[in-house]
């Protein structure tokens, strides 16, 4: 059985879905946005509403309360092609308070020419904020797009000290 809960944050509710203490999905648009994007195995499982997900909820609260490295301790799993998996793995290595360009991330994920694919991996990321796609910006430093709005991306980067 999977668990789901939401947290009130300064930028809206953050919705979370987990398998035990492994986060499967997180986003600011609601469960209806997240559930269809789970793996077919996970989406067919029962999802129970809970007040909090052990460890995950505490770390998310810690992050929004100022411990900006708290999200690094959350274990994650999401469906995606091999290249996307390598992009998301590298994305989690972006230091808190820093940003990388899409080009930097493409190089680190093993394919310097795959900048567009990196952008697609970012937009496909199912675990927003925890897999920090908000830390990926355009080469010139412009923020670029963010599935939950540029205002949310900007707030997260300011909260982390990157802006």
Architecture of the largest domain, CATH level 2?
Answer: Orthogonal Bundle
Counting structural domains, the number is 2
Percent strand equals: 15-25%
The CATH homologous superfamily of the largest domain: Winged helix-like DNA-binding domain superfamily/Winged helix DNA-binding domain
Brief synopsis:
By secondary structure, the chain is α/β, with parallel strands linked by helices.
SSE layout and pairings?
Blueprint lengths: L1 E8 L2 E8 L2 E6 L3 H4 L5 H4 L3 E3 L6 H9 L10 E2 L5 H10 L8 E2 H7 L6 H10 L11 E2 L12 H10 L4
Parallel strand pairs: 1-4, 3-5, 6-7
Antiparallel strand pairs: 1-2, 2-3
Helix pairs in contact: 4-6, 5-6
Describe the structure.
The chain is an alpha/beta fold and 163 residues long. It has two domains: 2-75, Double Stranded RNA Binding Domain (2-Layer Sandwich); 80-159, Winged helix-like DNA-binding domain superfamily/Winged helix DNA-binding domain (Arc Repressor Mutant, subunit A, Orthogonal Bundle). 33% of the residues lie in helices and 19% in strands. The protein contains seven helices and seven strands. The protein has helices at 31-34, 40-43, 56-64, 82-91, 102-108, 115-124, 150-159, and strands at residues 2-9, 12-19, 22-27, 47-49, 75-76, 100-101, 136-137. A five-stranded mixed β-sheet has the order 4-1-2-3-5. A two-stranded parallel sheet has the order 6-7. Helix 4 packs across helix 6 and helix 5 (102-108) packs across helix 6. The mean pLDDT is 96.
Descriptive keywords:
163 residues, alpha/beta, Double Stranded RNA Binding Domain, 5-stranded mixed beta sheet, 7 helices, 7 strands, 19% strand
